[in-house]
Write a structure and sequence with these properties.
- The complex is a heterodimer.
- Chain A contains 28 helices and 23 strands.
- By secondary structure, chain A is of the alpha+beta class.
- Chain A folds into four domains: 70 residues, no CATH class; 182 residues, no CATH class; 312 residues, no CATH class; 176 residues, no CATH class.
- In chain A, strands 1, 2, 5, 6, 7, 8, 9, 10, 11 and 12 form a ten-stranded mixed beta sheet that branches.
- Chain B is an alpha+beta fold.
- In chain B, strand 4 and strand 5 form a beta hairpin.
- In chain B, the strands form two sheets. In chain B, strands 2-5-4 form a three-stranded antiparallel beta sheet. In chain B, strands 1-3 form a two-stranded antiparallel ribbon.
- The chains are: A alpha+beta, B alpha+beta.
- Chains A and B meet through helix 1, helix 2, helix 3 and helix 4 of A and helix 3 and strand 5 of B.
Chain lengths: 876, 119
């Protein structure tokens, strides 16, 4: 209890200074008055009595000062003095101050920047009530690490059987074509079962959510607008409820507006429409292609929900053949959204922490050197009666001042670099909430914490060491200009070796990542991304032959445009993360027996696709105009398919049956080259190309190869489409090169950031070597003078100092290479085309650093060897 | 001058002995009843038969220090001549401290007199 009282009193003295002062004043005045009265009683005149009383008090102001002292206010004043003294000292040694602040600011800035991302992506919870209870459910094929989307039948069963969830919602994201003032427009849409808003714990800001009736089978022409879309299209007009939103085939009644910032998974939908599910025929709306979000009941843990769903899944597997071999994966929604960003950020956090440690080690070395240089000053102060605590406090306050200055500079750096990094990480990191990534209060606290911590750890040790000076020996030693203290010297050497080793580790890592990136850039994609532009089209709502005719007419028009070399469509573009897996049967196999189906990926394309995408035809012929709904069914396969299923050659001319919406036996008429459809690092899979004209789809992307700059054709292509159907919506155009750039985004981010930080680390480590040698040279000036005077050659002097630097660098290099080899496992998953032990990366990193270190060591060594013996001998 | 034994017997003594002694005297005096600074000084003088005089005003830093230590508490109240004065009371911690200090003082003074007598 006592310290609480004390703290209260201290705080009172500190915070209510005026009141305390007034009370002190009154208390002393009372005393003076009583004393005056006593003097008057003894016979003095009132005025004399008062001045006598004041005299006896020995000066009221001095008494007050003593009282303030007793209350502990002096400590604060002394701290202020120390801070001022520190600032004065730092101003006097500008070189030291600049180097110390710069290195620490770089370390702190890098950490704050990455922490800003860690905070925004990993730490900040999703912006919904009790968001830790939000989960995403997916189906998990046995024996596979990956998960697949959810089947509507399973969703209905889960909702009926599972007790762990407050609500479960099924959703899908087909685009929605609306007709606005400027023609048709494609919106992002969530089509969802009734519970979606309950799952996310939000209510519409205007109007209402869907009613259960609206998600039963039947036609329900209602829509809830996304908040952003409402602002964009309707200017945030609250009277929008009840109005109608024109779509291709009619209109939808606006019944509500979603709250701002609501993101379903990683998209912020423009519109929400009901997803009617018929319990009698759930697969009428599709198969395993839905998202399922849930909210856990309060008090139900994720593990409990997982255990329950495992039981549910095994019951379903017994009941439905299609669920055989499928489990259910339940993940926290936040966890799921950041699953790809998490390892990246962890790696980067480790990297910047290393940079900070190097900066701190540098700072510790500098502080130690500075403190040793000031031992004389401390000895004098100790001799004059300063206690050890007072000296330590002085030094710690000095480093605190230093680190706060560095923290401020680091914040400025972080402010800039965060903006740069947001651009660099677009497409490389998924963020679960719509809130922008920027410096906020949490980041400020983080910076302050880092700055303070570094000071305490790296300022206290040299402070403690140096404050223990014995004035007598020190003053005597100092007067003789004695050599450096060996123990402290060894400690500084160890610090330099450490920072060199850490820098080498980062350098090796960045070498590996840079080589990975260059390998990725060189990967043979299998198609020619240059001069190719794409746009998404949603064909839904029309009968089969209308969709075929529409695509046919659009292609005719676009092909006729001047400057267009080829035009076609494909359902899912390469490198977009979308594909379609299916099965097929060879001729002579039992048709339709799923257990005998062979796996293949399938792509739904139009005539001219291979020319438009720049994919080489290896055998046979491409699709052409003759291949129509009524003509013989034809297929084209890729090289992997031909090699795997027809290893004897001659895939062309064989007949297979591909499981699809309009399946029929078809002849393979051609073989094309492999494409890295599923990403740069994924080997091409066997793929069969179906023809849209024979198996019409609903979603497709136009692919146009132009003569020159493809993006210049975007407006003309859009016009051509609208000439065919003025109400057909078209998405914004993207070039294939942009998709390639997207899939390079993460490796580019890794390589760029780690390389940046490695350069930073190397510069800091070089500064460390230089600082140590320059300091040693300065300390030994006297000794060098004697040596030179006694006949040592300048080469001897150079070799001695240079040798010391080279030994430190070499020790750091060896240690760093060993550490990097020890850490191989940490980066192996990020590499492509190089092994984690890649000799080139190690050799180049070591050689680069060795050259730099030798240059840096040569400078002070050379300078020392040029000393004039007579000046050196006089040097104190 | 912090505390002086009256002029007749002025001898120099280590500062901290005097300091500690003053604390002890204050604690002892206000253990009788709550008192303001002026009264404490008067009481010390009277109780020591005019032998010990606290320097005018030098009492206050000691009082403030004891307050910060949590040994005494201050409260404003009307004085005997109806003016506002700051009254100090012993806290529980202060009472314990008084016991310790007293015991220590007794040991010390006994030891000192032992030496002085034998010498």
């Amino acid at each position: 209890m006592r310290w609480v009282t004390k703290l209260r009193l201290r705080l009172r003295s500190l915070l209510q200074r005026d009141l305390v002062e007034a009370e002190l004043d009154e208390e002393l005045r009372f005393h003076v008055e009583r004393l005056t009265e006593e003097h008057i009683a003894a016979g003095l005149a009132p005025r004399e009595a008062r001045s006598a009383a004041l005299r006896e008090m020995g000066g009221l102001d001095q008494r007050k000062e003593e009282c303030r002292d007793a209350r502990g206010l002096v400590l604060l004043d002394e701290v202020r003095q120390d801070a001022q003294y520190a600032l004065r000292g730092l101003r006097k040694t500008r070189g030291f101050t600049a180097v110390a602040i710069l290195s620490l600011a770089l370390g702190i800035g890098a950490n704050t920047t990455i922490f800003t991302f860690v905070n925004a992506v990993l730490l900040r919870p999703l912006p919904y009530p009790a968001s830790e209870r939000l989960v995403i459910l997916r189906e998990q094929p046995a024996g596979s690490a990956g998960t697949v989307a959810v089947h509507p039948l399973n969703f209905l069963e889960w909702r009926a059987r599972a007790a762990s969830f407050e609500a479960l919602a099924l959703a899908q994201t087909p685009p929605l074509d609306v007709i606005g003032a400027d023609g048709a427009d494609q919106l992002t849409r969530i089509q969802t079962s009734v519970e979606l808003f309950r799952v996310f714990g939000v209510v519409p800001v205007l109007g209402r959510a869907f009613t259960p009736e609206e998600t039963r089978p039947g036609q329900h022409d209602v829509v809830i607008l996304g908040h952003g879309f409402w602002q964009r299209w309707f200017g945030g007009d609250p009277a929008v409820i009840g109005r109608r939103l024109a779509v291709r085939d009619g209109s939808l009644t606006i019944v509500g507006v979603a709250p701002p910032g609501l993101r379903i998974g990683s998209i912020e939908p423009d519109a929400y429409t009901p997803l009617p599910i018929d319990p009698a025929k759930p697969d009428a709306i599709g198969s395993r292609s839905f998202l399922c979000y849930g909210r856990l009941k309060p008090g139900i843990s994720l593990d409990a929900a997982r255990a329950e769903m495992a039981t549910v899944a095994s019951a379903l597997a017994r009941q439905y053949p299609m669920d055989e071999g499928y489990g259910v994966s339940v993940s926290g929604l936040h966890e799921y959204l950041v699953r790809e960003g998490r390892p990246a950020l962890k790696l980067l956090m480790a990297v910047v922490t290393t940079v900070l440690v190097i900066a701190c080690v540098n700072l510790a070395g500098l502080l130690m050197a500075r403190a040793i240089r000031r031992r004389g000053e401390f000895a004098v102060r100790a001799a004059l009666g300063a206690t050890r605590g007072r000296l330590v406090r002085q030094l710690v306050i000095e480093s605190l001042v230093l680190s706060f200055l560095a923290g401020a500079a680091g914040l400025v750096l972080a402010y800039w670099s965060t903006r740069a990094l947001v651009a660099l990480t677009t497409g490389a990191l998924t963020v679960g909430s719509a809130a922008p990534i920027r410096l906020d209060a949490a980041c400020l606290v983080f910076t302050l914490g880092v700055a303070t911590l570094t000071t305490l750890v790296f300022g206290l040790v040299p402070a403690w060491q140096v404050s223990g000076v014995e004035p007598r020996t020190e003053l005597r030693e100092g007067a003789r200009g004695a050599g450096p203290d060996r123990r402290r010297h060894r400690m500084r050497s160890a610090l330099v070796v450490t920072e060199v080793a850490l820098a080498v580790v980062l350098l090796v890592g960045s070498g590996l990542l840079l080589r990975t990136f260059s390998r990725l850039v060189q990967v043979d994609l299998g198609f020619q991304p240059a001069q190719t532009i794409t746009m998404k089209l949603f064909l839904g709502g029309r009968p089969d032959d209308a969709r075929v005719a529409l695509v046919d007419q659009i292609l005719d028009r676009v092909e006729a445009l001047p400057g267009v070399k080829a035009a076609s469509t494909i359902q899912f573009l390469p490198l977009t993360g979308l594909n379609c897996g299916t099965g097929f049967w060879l001729e002579g196999q039992a048709r339709g027996d799923p257990s005998q189906a062979l796996p293949t990926e399938c792509s739904l394309v139009s005539r001219g696709y291979f020319a438009a995408m720049g994919i080489p035809l290896l055998d046979g012929r491409p699709f052409d105009r003759r291949d129509r709904m009524g003509s013989p069914r034809v297929l084209i396969v890729n090289r992997s398919f031909a090699r795997r299923y027809f290893p004897e050659g001659r895939a062309r001319g064989r007949r297979i049956l591909v499981y699809s919406s309009n399946q029929a036996w078809a002849e393979i008429v051609g073989v094309v080259g492999d494409v890295r459809h599923n990403g740069l690092t994924t080997e091409p899979a066997p793929t069969v190309f179906l023809l849209h004209a024979q198996t019409p789809g609903y979603i497709t992307s136009l692919v146009v190869r132009a003569d020159g700059e493809a993006s210049a054709q975007a407006a003309a292509i859009r016009r051509a489409i609208h000439e065919v159907d003025p109400l057909q919506a078209v998405s914004a155009a993207r070039t294939m090169e942009e998709y390639v750039a997207d899939s390079l985004a993460r490796p580019r981010m890794y390589a760029a950031l780690v390389a940046c930080f490695a350069v930073l680390a190397v510069v800091l480590a070089a500064m460390g070597i230089y600082g140590l040698l320059a300091y040693v040279a300065a300390q030994r000036t006297h000794e060098i003078g004697i040596r030179l005077a006694l006949g040592a050659s300048r080469g001897d002097v150079f070799r001695a100092l240079f040798g010391q630097g080279a030994r430190l660098a070499l020790a750091g290099l060896v240690l760093g290479v060993a550490a990097a080899r020890g850490l191989r496992a940490a980066v192996s998953t990020l590499l492509f085309g190089v092994t984690p032990g890649d000799p080139a990366s190690y050799v180049v990193a070591a050689a680069l650093f060795a050259v730099l270190a030798l240059v840096v060591a040569a400078i002070p060594a050379h300078r020392a060897s040029r000393l004039d013996p007579t000046t050196a001998l006089r040097y104190e | 001058m912090l505390l002086s034994v009256s002029d007749r017997s002025r001898v120099s003594r280590p500062a901290d002995l005097v300091q500690g002694t003053l604390d002890l005297l204050i604690l002892r005096v206000i253990s009788l009843e709550p008192m303001h600074g002026w009264a404490i000084a008067q009481r010390i003088r009277r109780m020591s038969n005019d032998e010990l005089r606290v320097g005018q005003g030098s009492l206050y830093p000691a009082l403030h220090k004891l307050e910060q230590q949590g040994w005494i508490e201050a409260k404003w109240a009307a004085s005997e001549n109806n003016r506002r004065a700051k009254y100090y009371t012993l806290t529980r911690a202060g009472r314990k401290a008084l016991e310790n200090e007293t015991a220590q003082w007794e040991r010390l003074s006994a030891a000192v007199s032992l030496v002085v007598r034998r010498a």
